[in-house]
Amino acid sequence: MSNATNTQVLLNSRPKGIPQAENFTISECPIIPPKDGQVLIRNHYLSVEPAMRGWICDAGNYSEPVGINTVMRSLAVGEIIESKSPDYHVGQHVLGMFGWQSHTTTDATNIDRVIDTSQLPISTALGILGINGLAAYFALLEVGLPKPGDTVLVSTAAGAVGSCVAQIAKIKGCKTIGITSSPEKIELCINEFGYDKAVSYNSPNFVEELANACADGIDVYFDNTAGRISDAALTLLNQRARVVICGTASISQWSPIPLGPRVERHLLVKRARMEGFVIFDYADRYHEGVKQLSEWILEGRLHYREEIKHGIEEAPDSIAALYRGDNLGKRLIKLAD
Question: C-alpha distances in angstroms, 202 versus 183, 184, 205, 327?
C-alpha cells in the first residue's frame, strides 16, 4: 500500500445554515500504514445523515464540531485490508466513524461492530441496521411508547428514519399518518411503507389536510422537522400524547433562535410529554436493535429503500441534497465493491 493514495473529503469552511458543496474540498494524501493495535480499512460505503449539519456548525450540539481542513465525520462500512490488532483480521467487514475517505487507518477500538454479510447487504449497516433504523427503533419504542390503537404521526415520513418508524408502529398495532413533501412521496409512504394516510407540507391547505387526516387526534408525534410543520401537529395532540424530538430538519439556522408559537399550553392542557432523542445515548443497546430489525426485515415485515450515489465526488453536495428533499431512500455513497 506504500504507493496508494487516500482520497478524502475535507471541511474547508464553516457553513451558515445548511452545508453546501463549496464548504468541502476533495483531497488526496498517502495511505498511513497501521501501527500496533490499528487496522487499515478500505471503505465501501459512506453515509450521509441530516445530523451532519449539526456536526459541522460552529455552535456545536451533542458532539464537537468537525475541524476546518479535517476529514468530514461520517459513518462508513468497509473491509479490513491490513490488521495489526489481535481482535480483527483481514477480510472482515466493519462499521465505524471512519469519515468521508476512501481508506481509514484507525485504532481497532474505534470499530463499532463487525458486519454479518451472510443475510443482508453491508450497506444496510448504514441505514436500516445503522443509526437511522436504530433511531427509529429506540426513539419510538423507548420515548414514544406506542400502544395498540394509538395514532402515530411521523414527519419526514418517507425518509430513512421516518419510514422505519411507521413500519415499527404498524407492527405494534398503531395507525400511522405521514407528513412528507410531494405527491410522489405520499404514494411511496402509503404503497411501500404502509402508512394509513399521508399529507404534503407543501400543500396550500396543509394545516386543514393534516387536521382531517388526524381526525382522532395524535397519540405519538415523531418529530423530525420542528418549525411550522410541528406547530400544526402540536395543536392536534390527544391527552397523554408523547412527542419525540428526533430532528429539526426544517430549521436552516439556529442563530438567532427562530421564534414561533409557544408549546407549553398544548403540553399542559393535554398533559402531554415532549422529549429529545439522540441515538448515541443507546450505543450499549445497538445489538438489541440490530437483532430485532434484522428479524423483521427477513420476515418481510420491514422494508427499506437505499439511494446509492457512486464516487466520492458525490459527497460534497450530498448533505444539501438531503435538505432539498432530492433523495428517495437512505442516501449512501458507494466507493468500492
Answer: 10, 12, 8, 17
